[in-house]
């Protein structure tokens, strides 16, 4: 906040004290902080909850891997193991993720719609509202109009299922905000939104805070990855102070999920990243 805005808010608050209280509450929101299971070497593995607890984190973004033979979540007994681990270590599930589409593209794989439908079927049991659909590697749709067209067609078919269940399909891609919005508008469902990733968007040269504000004002962001490439959070190229301000500007209240941001080992990085996020986003001086 610049000086002019600060003075303006201070002046307004003197006449309308409730506005000052609202502004303070907005600044003091305490975010829940999670981490992706695949960056703590526990992809679709119950041990992720124990690790997250040891790192002082609140939750796990849990992968659904329909090709996983050992921990396939379509089986109730497997889901019960995950729920038991979450309860034992007092670590929540922040959201679901389907990185499987990086290898079996969502827009062309014959099993894609079935897999997403399976995930949506058991998400309520996990008390989940968001599932990330990944579009990288073989699943990349940037600058591929035909692949985007196929993506839209498939999303149109499965979005009504998500709507009925109160779930959200979060698209994580290399696309900019306008291309993301074009897909969301074409699908025409509030059940399809953007899963925003700070490092991915910075790598593509997009203005991350501006994109967050633009998409946020359209209610198009479901969750966010706080991510850095080749460095821990706060030590790389992404300006997370600006990210924090942008999230406050759109009144974002959902999970902050740490992804990647690894340097000199994933265990120590996970601890350091968690402390950094608590200090910056939750003003937690005890994490120092």
Overview of the structural elements:
The protein has 288 residues and is an alpha/beta fold. It has two domains: 1-30, no CATH class; 31-287, TIM Barrel, CATH 3.20.20. 46% of the residues lie in helices and 16% in strands. The chain contains eleven helices and eight strands. The protein has helices spanning 3-15, 17-27, 47-54, 76-89, 112-122, 145-165, 177-187, 198-203, 208-217, 240-249, 266-282; strands at 33-36, 59-63, 92-98, 130-134, 168-172, 192-197, 221-228, 256-260. The chain has an eight-stranded parallel beta barrel, surrounded by six helices. Helix 9 packs parallel to helix 10 (240-249). The longest helix is centred in the middle third of the chain and has 21 residues, at 145-165. The chain is globular. Mean pLDDT is 91; it is low at 1-25.
Summarize the structure.
The protein is of the alpha/beta class. 46% of the residues lie in helices and 16% in strands.
């Amino acid at each position: 906040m610049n000086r002019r805005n600060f003075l303006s808010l201070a002046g307004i608050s003197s006449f309308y004290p409730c506005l000052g209280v609202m502004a303070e509450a907005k600044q003091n929101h305490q975010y829940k902080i999670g981490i992706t299971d695949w960056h703590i070497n526990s992809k679709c593995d119950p041990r992720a909850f124990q690790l997250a607890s040891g790192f002082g984190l609140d939750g796990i973004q849990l992968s659904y891997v329909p090709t996983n033979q050992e921990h396939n979540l379509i089986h109730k007994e497997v889901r019960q193991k995950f729920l038991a681990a979450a309860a034992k270590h007092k670590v929540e599930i922040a959201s679901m993720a389907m990185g499987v589409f990086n290898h079996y593209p969502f827009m062309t794989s014959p099993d894609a719609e079935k897999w997403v439908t399976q995930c949506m079927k058991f998400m309520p049991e996990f008390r989940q509202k968001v599932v990330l659909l990944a579009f990288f590697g073989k699943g990349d749709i940037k600058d591929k109009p035909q692949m985007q067209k196929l993506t839209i067609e498939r999303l149109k078919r499965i979005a009504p299922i998500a709507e009925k269940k109160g779930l959200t399909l979060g698209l994580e891609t290399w696309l900019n905000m306008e291309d993301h919005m074009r897909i969301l508008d074409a699908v025409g469902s509030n059940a399809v939104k953007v899963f925003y990733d700070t490092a991915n968007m910075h790598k593509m040269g997009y203005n991350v805070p501006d994109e967050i504000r633009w998409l946020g004002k359209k209610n198009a962001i479901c969750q966010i990855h706080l991510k850095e490439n080749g460095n821990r959070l706060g030590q790389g190229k992404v300006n997370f102070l600006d990210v924090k301000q942008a999230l406050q500007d759109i009144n974002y209240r959902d999970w902050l999920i740490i992804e990647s941001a690894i340097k000199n080992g994933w265990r120590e990085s996970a601890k350091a990243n968690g402390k950094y996020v608590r200090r910056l986003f939750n003003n937690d001086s005890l994490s120092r």
